[in-house]
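Deviation from plan, reported transparently: NAP complex.
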Amino acid sequence: MAHSLEGRLALVVGGSGGIGAATARLLAEAGARVIVTHTARSAGAAASLADSLPGSGHMALPADVADTASLLALRDDVRVRCGDALHVLVNAAGFTKPVPHADLDALDDALIDRMFAVNWRGQFAAIRAFAPMLKASGDGLIVSVSSIAGRTGVGSSIAYCAAKAGIDVMTKSLARALAPEVRVLAVAPGVVDTGFVPGRGADFNAKIAASTPLGRVGRAQDVAEAILACATSLQYSTGTTIVVDGGRSL
Ligand SMILES: NC(=O)c1ccc[n+]([C@@H]2O[C@H](COP(=O)([O-])OP(=O)(O)OC[C@H]3O[C@@H](n4cnc5c(N)ncnc54)[C@H](OP(=O)(O)O)[C@@H]3O)[C@@H](O)[C@H]2O)c1
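Because the crystal trials were delayed, the predicted structure below was used instead.
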């Protein structure tokens, strides 16, 4: 198979979510052995996902990206079960809470801190924990899920936009720092039809479709395809963010 990921180990942090699960499936279909992580909320869904993937050796393991100790425990567990080399790390964990941008008081310190702990520090902490294993593979790849909110400043809250801008800049810095053994990329979706933002429904999707050049809301599969391309086709790319937004940010 062209661009086969046979013999490669992939870890999808946030692999039980919409984009994470679609990515896990494509990576497994390409031949990778896939580990998906879950929080306490989604242990059952993650285990079913791992069981349903094509190929063998897939598993679901717990990790909370806001808790670095749990990422280190995950790293140790993966090493014992799978050996010293990790080929692909996908950072697909994230959360948000809509806060109108003009309501400055509603974006309080606790929410800002949580936003950065989960949506920026957590991605960095996962990379920090797994960098030695990615380097050990000799041909490692990190793909973090950013958002066009990080460049447009339009998104569910100002802190969310800032955390995603931080993902884009971290991607550049780490691409320099981890080369040549590890490539570092990000993908920036526009609006994707998952359960990510509470309260989005059919009306919201119709409005988004009407105001998006390609005429539809994004699917988790669209983003997963871009992440797969980072692992297969885009071998000479590092330090950049690939926009997958149907032209929404134009
Ligand atoms: N959907 C969109 O419109 C959109 C647009 C642009 C960017 N994104 C980005 O895409 C990524 C994936 O989002 P999605 O749309 O797939 O949403 P989703 O279905 O809600 O998935 C989010 C994932 O993050 C995990 N997660 C949340 N908090 C976590 C924590 N503290 N530690 C570990 N995992 C945690 C969730 O796990 P549990 O289920 O176990 O809580 C879930 O697997 C996010 O980074 C998001 O910012 C989404």
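Strands lie at 9-13, 33-38, 59-62, 88-91, 140-145, 182-189, 240-244. We consider this an acceptable substitute for the interim report.
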